[in-house]
Amino acid sequence: MAPEPDKSRIDRLGLTALAVIFLVGVTLISLLPGMRLDLTENQLYTLSDGTKKVLGSIPEPVNVYLFFSDKATADIPQLRTYAGRVQEMLEEFASRSNGKLNVTVIDPLPFSDEEDRATEFGLRPINLGNNADPIYFGIAATNSVGDDEIIPFLDPAKESFLEYDLAKLTYTLAKPKKPLVGLLSSLPMTAGFDPMTQQIRQPWVIADQLRQLFDLRVLEPGFETLEADIKVLLLVNPKNLPAGTVYAIDQFILRGGRALVLVDPFAEIDQGATADPMATAAGEDSGLDKLFAAWGVRVDHSTIVGDDRYALTVSGRDGEPVRHLGIIGITKDGLSQDDVITSGLSLVNLAFAGHITGSKGAAAEVIPLIQSSDKAALIPTAQLAMASDPGLLRTDFDPKGERYTLAARISGKLPSAFPGDARPGHIAIAAEPANVVLVADADLVADRLWVQTQDVLGQRLSTAFANNADLVVNALDNLLGSGDLISIRSRATFQRPFTRVQELGREAETRFRSAEQRLQTELEETESRLGELQASRKDQGTSILSPQQEGEIERFQARRLELRKELRQVQRDLDQDIEKLGATLKALNVALVPLIISLVSLILLQLRRRTRTARRTG
Length: 618
Hints:
Elements: H1 7-31, H2 49-56, E1 62-68, H3 77-95, E2 101-106, H4 113-121, E3 137-143, E4 148-151, H5 162-174, E5 180-185, E6 192-194, E7 199-201, H6 205-213, E8 215-218, E9 232-236, H7 243-254, E10 258-262, H8 271-275, H9 289-295, E11 297-299, E12 303-307, E13 311-315, E14 321-331, E15 347-351, E16 356-358, E17 365-371, E18 376-380, E19 405-412, E20 434-439, E21 451-456, E22 459-464, H10 468-479, H11 486-489, H12 499-536, H13 547-617
Parallel strand pairs: 1-2, 5-8, 5-9, 9-10, 10-20
Antiparallel strand pairs: 1-3, 3-4, 6-7, 11-16, 12-18, 13-14, 14-15, 17-19, 19-20, 21-22
Helix pairs in contact: 12-13
């Protein structure tokens, strides 16, 4: 029998090995201070491929200046921590730029040349009061041809947007010649004079963002020709287009031009539509239906898509929160993960969207980008005129399990909508497959659906809570043949919703609405009964209630108390279900990891014992 190894010697060797591994690890970390392990689900702290491509394709040097008041923030650890995060990312950008990105950190002390330089760039300080020094925390950048871009204030609340903001700034300066996009819209998206308020109208945030990335050319209504340098058209809720304009768009697409088209069965943001909801929908008389019909595509203007799964919470008739079937937030489940336009987006908010269908055997191939859930149903557009209370939209709402296409990519060798036209150079059918992105909602570009804005020291700061603008820019990037920023932008909104809690909320609301509807029905029946009793009285001129009327009112009041108790019980049950779910999750988080470690330890111990036994018996 072989002698048993000296246990103390084995333990000493094991401890020595652990000490060596520890020392090597500490040495590596000290030599590589930027090294880190990113264990976040979406790799939030790892540069995306799009960023790497942007940095690797910088043709001329770009200078980035991080203005941070280091001395003035000595007692503000939260801001200093985020400043370190920003500086680390900028240094990582520089390391991947092949020497084309130069980063300089500047502390603009009060009354210094550095503060004057920050002011010249357009950065403005934040003053916390109490006679404290002003704080600068922003970025200015320049390129070799004299262009400059700034980020006025680096908001720690937007940390998940940091990579996108920095990459967008770099991309803008690296490619100073912006691609040209032609915009035709009936909505007041751009700056201008508002005749109703007699004031200058602020541009929508989406328009500002588009101008940062593209050369946005606003097209005059009624055009019949398009400049040759326009490669992409952005059509947003067009109205009453003359035949010559429709023909120009038709030929532009058939010649290989790209288009992002937003039409709407009920454009709430359009003042004309909201003023007269019963009027013909804006998208229906745009003139584009003629093109769609030729392609074999249809956007239904008589209905909107309501969705009980994606419904967003708004203020109801009496100010109480209520889920609105027509205002929906499409999450990843409804966004195509197979298309670069929507892949990775977290949330797209729509309002009163229509749906897109394709005809069998048509020239156009309809590839869904955004779809409703299987808890969706169609709601007549005319019903919106009666929908001062969003809860009324649930009347006759009956989902059948069908999913509706809300946005799609249109491809194929499309035919002209003017087949018999004899103009010189007329194209009857596209030589190459077309590339059109069609969205059955125009409200999605309105600020209220995706971004919050606030005025800080005369500057408008915007914080996005949905990916609506990302969807538009992704589509334009893709149609222009550029996709470098897409993977970055898709990570801008990081949400981890508690889907089970949302499901519990929907179930509770269904029960709540059912009880509320019963109460409303009984109220109407009681009022009708009281009216009948009053009409049957011989002394109709008196205001004194009869015993029958008093009894009917008492019966209704007692029933109302019962239903109110039922409604309160529904809310209590919901709270208890959420608390139980939270307790279960806490128990799993607290106990699961120790349990796994214990099991692994027991397995290793058992294997060790078997090894010893085998050695002894051997």
